[in-house]
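task queued by scheduler; priority normal; single chain, no ligands, no partner chains; default sampling; output format set to structure tokens
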Amino acid sequence: MTLLAVNGLRKHFPLKKGLLGRGGGTVHAVDDISFDLTEGETLGVVGESGCGKSTTARLLVRLIEPDEGQIKLEGRAVGTAMPLAEARSKMQMVFQDSFASLNPRLTVEDSIAFGPVVHGLPRPRARERARGLLARVGLEPARFANRYPHELSGGQRQRVNIARALALQPRIVILDEAVSALDKSIEAQVLNLLLDLKAEFKLTYIFISHDLNVVRYMSDRVMVMYLGKIAEIGPSESVFAGTHHPYTRALFAAMPSMDPDRRTQQPPLIGDPPNPINPPPGCRFKGRCAHAEDICGRGDIALTTAGAAHRVACLIAQPGSGHSSAPARAA
């Protein structure tokens, strides 16, 4: 069952001109992306910094208003058929900075209970739910309920943020680099906690991370983004075992390995991404791609099927696209 459907999502940020009229332009943060999220799955989202991962997450929960596109949750358009308050109760987010995410003037218990109270739950029941969730994420309520954020470690604060996200009993939780600031031993504990909570509460995750090994461990499907576009999307093992987009291949080549026979002899990528203020036409990766040809810059490149539920935005994977390495079109 499709729980979340995103179609044609776009967000551009206009820049102000300076006193002399210089500058201006528009940052193409998210540029016409579409994907579905199936109930009960974990969709991993990866890509270099600045590719639009976090902006996409904020657009989904409407912390940022999209310029174009439609977001459907449970088959209803968010913001019209489904009010924003209802959508936000069904779709919660956990951020990277565990300290900045919490109000320093509220106790842990009050931070978790705040959302349910705002949504109409009586305060005693909200506090009871908060204490139950604290226990579920591994923080003994008697010890932690009345503490303030500054009295907790980073791992403990992130557990509080996870409990707070679950307080409204959502169906989707968006985890935006939620474990990247944690010590590795604590990270492993939180990842296993997230898997347990997913099974217990029948949750669906969108898991954003730079750590590709963690994404592979957590995700059922993987979406690779590059400069506001989807480069490749498909089942996790299919994408990791058989990458089709040159950018995905380079990204995965940068994964650290303990095997001395798999040493990286050359940098997987050279050069910097193009300016998002004025992205080039066609494939946005062509300036860094060893397989780029003139045809790669002649227009937008659609996602093409490259296997069962596996799609890629590259002319090499499109039969009859005109690229010299593309397969011939079937007769």
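post-processing summary
- The chain has a mean pLDDT of 90.
- The chain has two domains: 39-65+83-227, 246-258+279-331.
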